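Field reference: "sequence" (input) and "structure" (output). Example, CheY-like chemotaxis protein:
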Amino acid sequence: MVQKAKILLVDDRPENLLALEAILSALDQTLVRASSGEEALKALLTDDFAVILLDVQMPGMDGFETAAHIKRRERTRDIPIIFLTAINHGPHHTFRGYAAGAVDYISKPFDPWVLRAKVSVFVELYTKNCQLREQAALLRLQLEGGSANGVDASKETAGLLAELSARLAAVEEQAEALTKQLGEDSADAGVVATAAHLERKLTGLRRALDALEPGSAGGAPALPAQN
């Protein structure tokens, strides 16, 4: 049974958190509330999250400052952040969001289907990444056990590598479809950031998987961070 991914929802207004939960409940993942930037940073100390939905305008520590803290921490720097804002912002305001480390920037009121679709891609990527890491660890154990016992593990290795590759290919296909869909609106600055983030992560996973192939120079490397 695949463990559910955690999605962090950060907003100082309870009604907004309730609305986000209603939109994202169909994804059947674990939704975690935070009513301030400080509360969000505390949650990030102990739990791993697939994606963060972060309101820009909050009293005290706003979304930009919260994102800056998240990106400074090694544990959390690679978690994708989607900024949510009700402000009528100009190009400079949007640029500030991407400079703070956001992979997307969505203005309220937003289309529930679009938000759910974007979040689902990061959840899927996170889930597949976790599965790949677990299977890669299992593969290493089997290879080590086979070598220690004088057993030829080539068939099992080939089977596991094929399954790992198929799982990753499914994520690559889904990410390509999303990029194509979003690319229809070339004026959306979030397309570039979202596509670049997905491409970076998928490229890292594919390289790590290729390095596991028999005869590769890299042996069995550690897979990249989960997010």
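The mean pLDDT is 77.
The first helix runs from residue 14 to 24.
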